[in-house]
Amino acid sequence: MGAIKGSVSYTRFYVWGELEGAYQDRFLRSIKNRVFEPLVAQEPEEEHVGWVSMSDPFDVDLNRDKVFLNNFLNIAFRVDRWRLPKPVFDAHYAEAEKQQLEKKGRERLSRKEKEELRMFVAKRLRKQVIPSMKTVDLSWDLDTGIVRFWNNSSKMHERLFELFEKTFKLKIVPESPYANAIHVGISESNAMSLVNRELSAFHETDDAEASGVVRTVRRKRDVQEPEEDTEDREPLDDQPDDDIEDDVENNDMEDDMENDEVADDDDA
After folding, report:
1. DSSP single-letter state for residue 27
2. What is the pairing mode between strands 68-69 and 10-16?
3. C-beta separation of 159 from 79 below 8 A
4. How far apart are CA 98 and CA 120, in angstroms?
5. pTM score, whole prediction
6. Of the candidates 22, 60, 178, 230, which lies 20 to 30 Å from 220 by C-alpha distance?
7. Do the beta carbons of residue 53 and residue 36 sit within 8 Å?
8. Where are the domains positioned within the chain?
9. Can you tell me the distance from the alpha carbon of 37 to that of 60, in angstroms, rounded to the nearest whole number?
10. Helix pair angle (111-126, 86-104), 10° resolution
11. Nearest to 34 by CA among 75, 81, 83
């Protein structure tokens, strides 16, 4: 989803810090060091994040032409995660636990044994599934320090903050009255009065948008009117405007990858 196609809603952030020296070369080297790497079934990690090309989520061979356009840095943030259906995992775990208890001649497993068995079952099942994948476009105006991120999920924002700050060694903060004031040059002492203020939204919002301001584009679409006899038509000045405005879908993008995670069994 993002700048090229898909959702037209995005969240704005500010980058705090100075761009010094030949920062484009430095940024490109750092991006290449943190490109996305695929998940491996036998490794313990459940999630991988990294940078990919905005035009192709499988393209990690990034160069200057793919990343920089005039004063913009354009890149995509990719997250892959193992998603094992809980009923499937529970069934395989129950069978594996039964075999272990019979083999050991015991009635229950210890906490450590359960954790090791869960990981063993998960690794075995991962060979039969494909990780879920999500990519989100990011466009950074290097002149203004404004970042547009085409996702409104607070959990996705947290992932972005961590990778962004590791990559560019700069702090990224959500748009807010306080951040807006600092951005336009208001002193920090005066801006502090805005810390607890919230931005006003001119469209319906939900909890997923709390970490930033979602920019929603409104479009007009043509409506085909049925033919009418011109003799019976009212004067144009007396007719209401029939243009219909459509809210473009504002996808709250709650991080659905968390919904199907394998839950740990409670110890007896």
Report:
1. H
2. unpaired
3. yes
4. 14
5. 0.64
6. 230
7. no
8. 10-83+129-204+251-258, 86-126
9. 9
10. 130
11. 75
